[in-house]
Structure formats: structure tokens, C-alpha cells
Amino acid sequence: MKKYLLAPGPTPVPEKILQVMAEPMVHHRTPAFKEKVGKAIEGLKYIFQTKNDVLIFSSSGSGAMEGAISNVLNPGDKAIIIRGGKFGERWGEIAEKFGVQPLYIDIEWGTAVDPADVEKLLKENPDVKGVYTQLTETSTCSVQPVKELGEIVSKTDTLLVIDAISGLGGQEFYMDDWKVDICVAGSQKGLMLPPGHAYAAVSEKAWKVIDECKQPNYYFDWKKYRKKLATNTDPFTGSVLHVKGLLVAIDMIKERGLENMFYQYRVLGKAVRAAAEALGLEVYAHPSCDVATAVKVPESVDGLALVKILRDKYGFTIAGGQAPIKGKIFRIAHMGYIEMFDIISVISALEIVLHELGWEFKWGAGLTAAQEIFAKEYKF
Ligand SMILES: *Cc1c(COP(=O)(O)O)cnc(C)c1O
After folding, report:
1. What atom of ligand 1 comes closest to residue 135's alpha carbon?
2. Is omega for the bond preceding 324 within 30 degrees of 0, making it cis?
3. Residue 195 belongs to what domain range?
4. Of the candidates 255, 276, 304, which is a domain's last residue?
5. CA distance 319 to 187
6. Tens-place pLDDT, residues 150-187
7. CA-to-CA distance for 113 and 105, rounded, in angstroms?
8. 34 CA distance to ligand 1 centroid (A)?
9. 46 and 170 in one domain?
10. How far is the CA of 87 from the centre of ligand 1 (A)?
11. pTM of the full structure
12. Per-residue pLDDT tens over the stretch 122-156
């Protein structure tokens, strides 16, 4: 059976990338490899839309999240953490482990924070060191108002720290223009690579805070990575394979252009939402992000069975819901190397499975809705 990977991470890896990652091993301290690292960092700056330093870690995305707390916040320091999903909660869990005092803004899952609430809490607590949120909260497929938060936070001494692990390269984002101080990302979502690389872009304002931070770090000591950056290397034996794959990914992204990519994923998202609605289903998040869509499972349908049948019987791996929304939503990714006909295929399979589970709708209604949007708006 042919397999389709349409979960919000890991995502499909293009053949061109797999090929370079299968080449014979190279040494990580050779001039030829350092040149590759230098190019990878330049490429990442384009994708982040930043002039800031970009650090590369051989870990999954959460390693960069941990570093974005442990290099910035001392025990007892205050941080505002926006919680509206699993990954907002992860910021909180890391902060608590490092003895940070979190000030939580709990929002309803699947919604966006009101920037005014952040502004108010910051005014009441001017000693807050960082505001932590997601660009796209993958567990609910919502998008957070990062640009508006940048306007507010940049007027203070506080840092704005964004987890763009699923959003980078797919959801509109301009790190410098939007005044973001630290942005973390991972390899296995929009960047089309296997899991195993994490990235952090760090502003000058953030480095000043990091230089003063006393929290102990070893593997994720960002100051050590910054020092090594000057010679295009890292303190440890980084994943040379990921660097090679990343260079191909960067070429692919540059060839299409970031703006075009933002546009394309927006159209994919629009098509998935239109299909869901045409099938009588409801989109979960408001506002819904451009890199994945969460759809509510109707009461009468078994949500866990839906995801399982799609995978085991038809070869489509999508994602279900996590924690309180387990079984209540399903999520289809449209990031990275996922294109129009992947979406057409998964909608087709979804119709078949919904029918098997007793949901009533007009055959082809989802497909038609998606095709109408693609015919009008998709650009090749
Ligand atoms: C996937 C994801 C993470 C976790 O990344 P890992 O690579 O699994 O550590 C964190 N935040 C968001 C928004 C994600 O989508």
C-alpha cells in the first residue's frame, strides 16, 4: 500500500534531500564541511527573515525550546507564558523545571491570545524577562498574533520568544520586522527534513540577557554555540547529515520564494477548511493557521477510529487530538513537502472513512469544494 504522511510533523522528506543524506559520512571539522555550515546559516537567516545569529542544535525542536528558557531565565525570574495547547504547556513545563516563576495567560484551546491581555500583564509586572508563545500552536492548529505582540513587547526590556517549530517556512513570519527576540524551529516540519535538528535565531537584545543569565547549562549553553559560530562549527559533533539535507531544503525554498510558500500553504489550508465544511464538519481553531488544519469530529463519529482506519486501511497518516481533545479532532498538515494533490487524496480518503463510520454527506462534496479553490487559486 502506498503511504501518505500528512501529520504535522514529521512531514515527508523530498527524494533530493534523502539522497544527499545517504551519501558517505564526512568529518564535521573539515574546511569543506564548515563552508556548508556557513551556507546553511545564511539560508536559515533568509527563512527566519533575520540578520540575527542563528544557532543549530542536533536535537529535536524541544531542545531549542529548553535552551530558550535555560539561557534566558534565572530561577525566580518571571516569564509570561501563553497556554492554549500542548506546546504552550510545554513552555510552562520547561520554565517550572528551571525554577522560573511563570505568569500564565490561559486561553481557550484553538483560539488566539488577545495582545491587550499581554500588554496589561506586562504593565503590572515590568520585571517580566520574557513573553513565550507559539507562532502556530500545532496541537490546535491556531495561529498567534506574533506581529502585534512584537509591537507591545519591543517597547519594553522584556524579550519576545516564539516557538515557530511548525510555523517556520509555512506561516507568514518576519522575525526582524515583527521584532521577535528569540525564535526557535525544528527540522521535521516546514523544513522538509527528518527530525533531529533544531534552530534558534537570537537578537542582540536577547544576547545581552543571555550573557547575564546564571542558570547552568551544558549541552544547550548558547554562549558556547555563539562562540563556535564564528568559525562555522558547533561545540559538539552535530548532525552532518542534517546540514547536507538542509542545504538542499534551502535551495528548494529559495527557488519557490518564501512569499510564494506562504501563499501556497494558505491556499492549501483554505481548501481543507472548505472541504471540511462541505462535508458538514466544523473547523476547530479560530483563527486557523496555514500549516495544518484541525477539524472537529462529530459526536456520532468515533474520532480515534477515523484516524486509525485512515492509517491502517488506506495508508494516510494524519494526526488526532491530544490531551483534552483526544478523539475530538483530527489534524491534516499542509506544510513542507505537502502539495495540492496530497490534499486532494487525503480528502478523498476522508470521505470514504467518514462514510464507513456512518457520517452522512453528499459524495464528492469535500473534493469539489477543495478543487474549486485549487482551480482558482493554486499556483504551480
Ligand atoms: C512539533 C512541535 C514542537 C515539538 O518539537 P519536537 O521536535 O517534537 O521536540 C514544539 N512546538 C511546536 C509548535 C511543534 O509543532
Report:
1. 13
2. no
3. 15-255
4. 255
5. 18
6. 999 999 999 999 999 999 999 999 999 999 999 999 99
7. 8
8. 27
9. yes
10. 7
11. 0.98
12. 999 999 999 999 999 999 999 999 999 999 999 99
